[in-house]
Amino acid sequence: MSLVDDLGLPGVVRYNRQEDMPFRRDEAWASFRGSYGMVYRATRRSKEGPPDEEDVYAIKQIQARSPKELMNVAREIKLLQQCRHPNIIALVESFTINTDGFRSTTCLVTKPWAPMYLEHLIFELDGSGGCQSSCSWFKAGELDPWPSILLQCLSGLKYLHTQKPHPIQSGTKI
C-alpha cells in the first residue's frame, strides 16, 4: 500500500513501470519545468501514425519528496476531478509509477496540450514585439485577440470561485 493509496483518491491508477502506462512521451517537443515537476507532450500508445489533436495530451510528472508535497498533489488531483469548464484544463487520468514511501512519481494527464505556459507567452510577447513564431497570431500594436483571451481567463476564474457548495480558492483544503 502506498501513500497515494492511503489518501483514498478515487481514479488514481498505479503502474509498475513507465512502459506500462498507456501514453508515450512525444520527444519531438520540449518539456517545461514547473514548480512541482515537468510537463511534456504525450500521445496514446495504441495509436499508430501521426497524432491528431484529439490524441495529444499534456502530462505533468510530479516527484513528491515529502508528505506535504504529496498532500499538495492529492489536492490538485481532487480539484481537477471537480472542474468541468472549457477554459480550465481537463483531467483525463492520474496515475503513479513505482511508488515507494514518500518518494513517488505521480502523473496528471490533461487536455489540451499547449506548447508553452501563459507566463512564458506573455514574457515572450513583451520582449519580442510579437514576432516569435510560437505566437504567429499576435500582431504588434493591435488589440486582438487579447480581449477574447482575457474574457476566457476570467470566465474560468469565475467558474472556480462560484463552485457550490465550496468555491475553489487559494488555500482550499481537500
TrEMBL record:
Query: What SUPFAM superfamilies does the record tag this protein with?
Result: Protein kinase-like (PK-like)
Domain annotation Protein kinase: ranges:
25-174
Q: Which GO terms describe its cellular component?
A: cytoplasm
- One function term, GO molecular function aspect: protein serine/threonine kinase activity
Q: Can you tell which superkingdom this protein's organism belongs to?
A: Eukaryota
For this entry, the protein name equals Protein kinase domain-containing protein
